[in-house]
Request: fold
Amino acid sequence: MSTEDLTLDLLAYHAFPLLASALSLRKDAILQEWEAAVVHTLPAADALTLQNLRDSVPLILQEIIEAFSSDRPFTTRELMEGSKLHGESRFQENYNMHELVVEYRLLRRVIIEQVSEVLDERLDMRSNIALNMAVDTALQSGIVMFTEHLQHQIRTSAEVQSKYLSFLSHDLRNHLHHAMLHLQLLAARLAKIPEYANNIDELESVK
Reply:
């Protein structure tokens, strides 16, 4: 069974119990540090927003822990689900792409700081790669979901605008057609009156 992404093979087929243990131990601290960093870095993140995010970020952390605990591809694929919720919630809360990326950068920094503190010298290169790979996977999943919602919004807006312009142009054509008929009728009537015959050219200019 494959993850359908060869770049995830390290996570898919190898367990990292020390990383899983360190993350489990510091999960609450990571969440608190991350929230404080978000408030400091993104003042637009209000209390309601953070409350909503508590539903997705703990899930992201838990999925990373499970990915580190397992050597099965299926578990690694599940790593993306929490981030999809995160990306969707951020879109619904009218965040922009930059703010979403900043949140993930802050999450990466806090995770690495907390895990490094627990593991001290035991965070070898392979574990460091796996840790960054897990955060990158979560980031990519959240960005993709955010982008999909943004693209849907743009398509919907374009369709509404297209329909509006279609109705508007149809309405304008009808009114202009009536105006042209009236000008033609007026020109025909003026042509029969000698003193107004010279005004016909002006009507043609109006047409």
Summary: The chain has a mean pLDDT of 83.
